[in-house]
Amino acid sequence: MPATKNVQNMMRISLVIVALLLSFSLNASVIVANKVYPGSIMLPLYNSGKIISLDDFMKLKPSGYKKLTGKRMNLKEIICLKIVQHHLKNTINNDGTVNLQKLADDETDSMWNNLDWVALGFFLGPIGLLIAVIINDSKRHQRIQWTAVGVCFLCLALLLYIFAF
Questions:
Q1: Is residue 23 domain-resident?
Q2: Sign of the C-alpha dihedral computed for residues 107, 108, 109 and 112 taken in this order
Q3: Could you tell me which of 56, 65, 82, 150 has the fewest CB atoms within 10 Å of its CB?
Q4: What is the three-state SS of 43-82?
């Protein structure tokens, strides 16, 4: 009887070894695609817990959202949906593939992620804009843009102050 236990243990060990070797060989044969299409990217659907492809999300309308989730979108949610669709539309190339670099950059290109540069432009004005121009790195254009937005807010605040009194 002990011999059969040894045989069973040897079978289990060999099965585990074969499974590990297969998993390593399968992981090594994964081919990285150069082109990513909108149908292959899945996104969570806002406030529903459901997942939808990028292609379907681009075609989504408020009535379609109601059919999928059973919830009606309010005006704020409709505006947010259209803004996100517009930003995602800019990440799709002419040949129908998704530019992943633009998608990653678009994620970090919001006013809330660049609030420090907006504040610098608002509180320091042209000096803040000069600071943004002097710093030279890969995000220079984005930094100058958001500092200029802060300077515009400063100008609007000054105009309101001047015309209010």
A1: no
A2: positive
A3: 82
A4: EECCCCCCEEEHHHHHHCCHHHHHHHHCCCCCHHHHHHHH
d(CA 96, CA 38): 8
User: Parallel, antiparallel, or unpaired: how do β-strands 42-44 and 51-53 relate?
Assistant: antiparallel
Residues 44 and 94 in one domain: yes
Residue 64 in domain: yes
Model-level pTM? 0.48
Which structural domain range is residue 84 located in?
A: 38-108
Which tokens in the block code for residue 109? 């290109």
**Rounded to an integer, what distance in angstroms lies between the CA atom of residue 26 and that of residue 40?**
21
Question: Lowest-confidence range among 31-35, 109-113, 149-153?
Answer: 31-35
Tally the domains of the chain: 2
Closest by alpha carbon to 120, among 139, 142, 153, 147?
147
Q: How far apart are CA 125 and CA 163, in angstroms?
A: 20
**Mean pLDDT, rounded, of the chain:** 78
